[in-house]
Automatic annotation (TrEMBL):
Gene that specifies this protein: mqnD
InterPro entries: Menaquinone_biosynth, MqnD
Domain of life: Bacteria
Active site (record annotation): H153
Name of the protein in its database record: 1,4-dihydroxy-6-naphtoate synthase
Length: 283
């Protein structure tokens, strides 16, 4: 991984919460001295796949993907998508109970997503995954290609408006089992750029998130341009859900939550061994 033309590329999703966090950088209110900032925007599963190459200096990924890419990246203490008692939602067209999930085909927004890992921890073992693009989960369920689907992002708060019935909130299941916040996504910085620059990037990310939260109206106006048509009230709710105090600094609870996620995955036989957490503290 190299940085060309003194340009640092940040990989992130084209979603309102990520746009909100990068508002201050995009407007050059927060800068990285000596470097310009560019963006590589793809859905989270595409970023999960790309992270295996180590090409991006900075990238968001699903927390579940970290064990596979830890050789290339360290976790930043800021920028994480962490929920408290909410998270991905398992939905269907017709009303269903959790017991009805046995043997069902599940539309999953990516093999490496934390949502799939959580389903493997809390759902029945005999379900069949149908891995589809993020925006194809809903259609896969409504068209009958899958019995149920796992909705992320805005879908987890808008599923009823979209005509779905909620079966299981993976965020609630997690909280009931652990009492911890749910670590869905993390922001990474490359091991290959040197500790000094990695720290500068982490600190700039920290400053950008804090600025957006302190200037919410302006940052939201910018961010909702990335909201896929979501109305402003729902957009504000969504951004506040996933750009919160835990995003500013995951703290010890966030670290404990990551350790718990991976240990439960090992216990369930989904993950072979526990990864070593390497977290760079932003200031």
């Amino acid at each position: 991984m190299t940085i060309n033309d003194n340009k640092i590329i940040f990989g992130h999703s084209p979603d309102a919460d990520d746009a909100f966090m990068f508002y201050a950088m995009e407007k050059k209110i927060v800068e990285i001295p000596g470097y310009s900032v560019a963006h590589h925007m793809e859905d989270i599963e595409s970023l999960n796949v790309l992270a295996e190459t180590g090409k991006l200096p900075v990238t968001a990924i699903s927390a579940a993907r970290y064990p596979d890419v830890a050789n290339h990246y360290r976790i930043m203490s800021c920028g994480s998508s962490i929920g408290r008692n909410y998270g991905p939602m398992v939905v269907s067209v017709d009303p269903m109970t959790e017991a009805d999930l046995e043997g069902k085909t599940v539309a999953v927004p990516g093999r490496f997503t934390t949502s799939w890992l959580l389903f493997q921890i809390f759902g029945p073992k005999n379900c069949t995954p149908l891995f589809v693009d993020f925006d194809d989960v809903g259609p896969a369920v409504t068209e009958g290609r899958a019995d149920v689907g796992i909705l992320l992002h805005e879908g987890q708060i808008l599923y009823e408006k979209l005509g779905f019935h909620g079966i299981m909130s993976l965020g609630e299941k997690w909280y009931e089992a652990t009492g911890l916040p749910i670590p869905l996504g993390v922001d990474l910085v490359s091991r290959h750029i040197g500790d000094e620059l990695a720290q500068v990037i982490a600190d700039a990310s920290f400053a950008s998130i804090n600025y957006a939260r302190a200037n919410e109206d302006d940052a939201l106006e910018y961010a909702l341009g990335f909201g896929r048509g979501i109305d402003p009230a729902d957009g504000k709710k969504f951004v506040r859900m996933y750009v919160n105090e835990d995003t500013v600094d995951m703290g010890q609870e966030g670290r404990s939550a990551l350790e718990k996620l991976f240990s439960m995955a090992v216990e369930r036989g989904v993950l072979a061994e526990l990864p070593e957490l390497d977290i760079i503290q932003a200031n």
